[in-house]
Amino acid sequence: xxxxxxxxVVLREIHDSDLPVFFRQxxxxxxxxxxxxxxxxxTDRDAFDAHWERIxxxxxxxxxxxxxxxxxxGSAAVYGEPGSREVTYWIDxxxxxxxxxxxxxxxxxxxxxxxxxxxxxxxxxxGSLRVLEKCGFRVSGHDRGYAQARGTEIDEVVLxxxx
Length: 163
Known about the structure:
3-stranded antiparallel sheet; 4-stranded antiparallel sheet; 29% helix; 163 residues
């Protein structure tokens, strides 16, 4: 089922009650594999909580919960220094392929007027690359990095949103 006008995709500030949902989502094996660049040990709840406490307090990070029809389905954020800010998002695998990530990312970049914005995705993550390109990001480079979730170095695509 695709996202439709009747499906309400909303970004809002993160609530404490969202964190257990995020923790569950970021421990799905297939999602971890696709995201590739993840926490060293995604099952470490203390490290997860410390990470979220740090980024929620950071003044240069815009964190949002992604809601679909009122349900928490993921998160989206912009972080980093001006001129090199990056976007990131995580959508529950049960919602993949419905256009929800695209709608959420469009809302996120609309809320952040500064440009350029950057993004990175595993080179084999066709779904995420498609989402980024639909939102105006264009390939600006290629890199290689250690993908914690895969236990090896992999190719990644660097994308930039200029306007």
